[in-house]
Design brief:
Layout (H helix, E strand, L loop, with lengths): L3 H4 L3 H18 L4 H18 L10 H15 L7 H25 L4 H27 L3 H7 L18 H21 L2 H16 L4 H19 L4 H14 L23 H17 L22 E6 L5 E7 L9 H31 L3 H20 L6 H18 L20
Antiparallel strand pairs: 1-2
């Protein structure tokens, strides 16, 4: 007969259910990730009270910079051009950071039973989720078309395919594949694990969103380099990120405007041209208030439907290769670093840089083993790539996708929570037969 203590609802169940549902949820209802994240955090807090198990937040530089970022975001209310949005989104961001800290603390403190339950759920949920993605690709997104009534609509219709509707979910899944792959690698034989990981990665590479494909490629390159240069690559990556954050407003100016007759840039895709136009328009606004920014989450207040402009790019012969009608900045700049500069100014950018460097330092100091470090830095690169090219920085489903997959990674890296740190022994890199 089982001990009653083993029958309680515990953090292994909560994180396990979240991991099990993550990919199916992301595939069919990406916006459902946000409530899944909130329920998981509240579940950890509630079970902590019921089981008399205190949740101790992971104090350190990362938490400090998260608090500083949230505090500065709320402070910009005083000069925000849309104070209502600043306050509402700032409070939401603060709550998201708190919930993320709670989940990370729970993930780092799982005992052996909780860890086993979590890993089983993570692995099984991933297998089911990737089979679901494969079905959607094979059936031209049949389930998505059925759920959203897409047949006959052009919203997600691209060259006869509705699978573009999967793009947001595939972006979220590109974060999930890191901890899932690591768990599979440590559970199964090398041949079985490699086959499963290759299958899952291949599905993500079928995405019609170039940013998802690029992020997987970038994460794989950084992960591989980290595996072979495990001590120097984190420092190189930190320097690259520091330069990227600090000089972000200067980068769009390095490319001439692709708009107008004879201005076409053949090396840019239509989506690339679109982004260059948005980024160059964003830099113009950054220059108006480069230190303090215009206020947190004010990008969406700059333009409306009435401000839409007709843009086109053509060859010297006058042949139009791209044209579109949209706001100079449609809701957000499609670049997280530029969005921080625009809304929070140089001060916000410096705080963000401190947060990223603290994160890299934590991984570098606390994660041991070549495979563990490679997957950790590869996952961080996937996130940074997508943040640099797509989605609004404060979109709840995207933020919570990041902050839900981080605890998954912590749990896989820190078995049983006995070490009270984010590392595992070197020999754990070898997959178990």
């Amino acid at each position: 007969m089982h001990d009653k203590a083993t029958q309680k609802i515990h953090n292994g169940h909560i994180l396990g259910v979240s991991a099990f549902l993550f990919v199916p949820m992301a595939t069919l209802l990406a916006r459902g990730i946000a409530p899944l994240f909130v329920v998981a955090a509240l579940g950890v807090l509630l079970t902590g009270l019921i089981n008399k198990r205190a949740v101790t937040l992971p104090l350190g530089p990362v938490l400090f910079f998260l608090a500083a970022f949230a505090g500065w975001s709320l402070l910009t209310w005083f000069w925000s051009i849309s104070p209502g949005e600043t306050l509402k989104t700032g409070i939401s961001l603060t709550a998201t950071f708190f919930c993320a800290a709670v989940l990370v603390a729970a993930a780092g403190g799982l005992n052996e039973l909780e860890d086993r339950i979590f890993r089983n759920a993570l692995i099984l949920g991933g297998f089911i989720g990737f089979l679901l993605i494969a079905f959607e690709f094979a059936s031209n997104a049949w389930l998505s078309r059925f759920l959203y009534g897409l047949d006959g609509k052009l919203l997600f219709f691209v060259e006869g395919s509705y699978t573009a509707t999967l793009n947001p979910g595939l972006a979220a899944t590109s974060l999930y594949i890191g901890p899932w792959s690591l768990a599979v690698w440590k559970r199964f034989s090398r041949s079985v694990a490699a086959t499963g990981i290759a299958f899952a990665t291949g599905l993500l590479l079928l995405s019609q969103a170039d940013v998802v494909v690029l992020s997987i490629f970038a994460g794989s390159v950084v992960g591989t380099l980290t595996f072979f240069c495990t001590s120097s690559m984190p420092r190189i990556l930190a320097v690259m990120v520091a330069l990227g954050v600090l000089v972000a407003p200067a980068i769009p100016g390095l490319v001439r405007s692709p708009i107008g007759v004879g201005q076409s840039l053949p090396f840019l895709s239509p989506s690339g041209i679109h982004r260059v136009v948005i980024w160059q328009n964003t830099v113009k606004h950054i220059r108006k208030n480069p230190i303090l920014g215009g206020g947190f989450d004010t990008s969406r207040a700059l333009y409306g439907v009435k401000d839409r402009v007709k843009y086109f790019s053509s060859k010297d012969t006058g042949e139009v290769i791209w044209d579109a009608r949209f706001e100079p900045i449609p809701l957000h700049p499609h670049n997280g670093f530029l969005q921080v500069w625009l809304e929070l100014g140089a001060i916000g950018a410096v705080i963000l840089l401190g947060l990223l460097l603290a994160m890299f330092r934590a991984i570098d100091r606390l994660v041991s083993g070549r495979v563990n470090r490679a997957v950790s830095f590869g996952m961080a690169t996937v996130w940074l790539t997508i943040v640099s090219l797509s989605f609004g920085a404060w979109q709840s489903w995207w933020l919570t996708s990041i902050f839900l997959t981080v605890p998954f990674m912590v749990s896989v890296l820190d078995p049983f929570g006995t070490a009270k740190r984010l590392s595992v022994p070197e020999e754990a890199d070898a997959p178990h037969p």
